[in-house]
Amino acid sequence: MSGEVLPPGQRLAKGWPVSHYGPVPRFREERWNLQVFGATDAGRTYSWTFGEVRELPTATLTTDLHCASGTTTVGHEFFGVPAAVLLALAPPAPQVTHVMAWAEYGYSANLRLADFAAERTLLATHHDGEPLTVEHGFPLRLVVPHLFGYKGPKWLRGIEYMTQDRRGFWEERGYHNIADPWAGQRHSYQEDEAT
Ligand SMILES: Nc1nc2c(c(=O)[nH]1)N[C@H]1C(S)=C(S)[C@@H](COP(=O)(O)O)O[C@H]1N2
Ligand SMILES: [Mo]
User: Fold this and answer.
1) Has this prediction a pTM greater than 0.85?
2) Cys-Cys link to 71, which of 13, 91, 117, 131 (CB 3.0-4.6 A)?
């Protein structure tokens, strides 16, 4: 158990409930790829098959997951490819300030480049030593340990480099653009509050 202290307003949930919007996509390996596109430094799009993703350098981290609706689950061990590895393999242009993380069915989450580049941000393939279950994002899920769960798309398919910010799926629907759980950043109306 890694989290004795929860962010303000969060309560501990038992087990690992599944929560997302819409249906669970079916994985077809022959149609799957991970793309990095938008404002890359080389001006080209990068693409990896699932087999190629599994060949990339990996890391393990333990984190709690905080859903903005108020539940926290603790002690998740994720294994996968650090976002920093992707940034090194597919360098962003110098003007890039934000990324959009894209999932199946058009789900998206915008992140400041610094949040995506953070040391513990991970493109996870495994949880507690097992491949992710399909409900929790198999084959690939973004984990951003220092932000609310909606910043971590399950069924991740792409990273778009952006030279200005643009709101993602929940951010367009009233959720906070930054989503720091320790600062209680749940709702977009809080963005107007004095910092
Ligand atoms: N593709 C996709 N990813 C998503 C979501 C979603 O609706 N679609 N919901 C997010 C939210 S709000 C949370 S709290 C976590 C929940 O992850 P879990 O079901 O593994 O607990 O997934 C995040 N990733
Ligand atoms: Mo959530």
Assistant:
1) yes
2) 13
Can you tell me which atom of ligand 1 is nearest the CA of 136?
Answer: 20
Of 82, 61, 83, residue with least CA distance to 127:
61
Whole-angstrom distance, CA of residue 97 vs CA of residue 111: 9
Pairing type for strands 34-38 and 156-162 reads parallel
Retrieve residue 74's tokens.
Answer: 């603790």
Q: 19 C-alpha to center of ligand 1: Å? A: 5
Model confidence over 127-140: pLDDT tens digits? Answer: 999 999 999 999 99
92: which DSSP letter? B
Give the residue whose CA is nearest to atom 5 of ligand 1: 20
Is there an atom of ligand 1 within 6 Å of 102 CB? no
pLDDT at site 194:
58
Label residue 193 by pLDDT band (50, 70, 90): confident
Alpha-carbon distance 63 to 77, whole Å? 7
Ligand 1 mean position to 142 CA, how many Å? 10
Domain boundaries, the chain: 28-190
CB of 112 closer than 8 Å to CB of 71:
no
* CA 194/CA 129 separation, integer angstroms: 43
- CA 91 to ligand 1 centroid distance, Å: 27
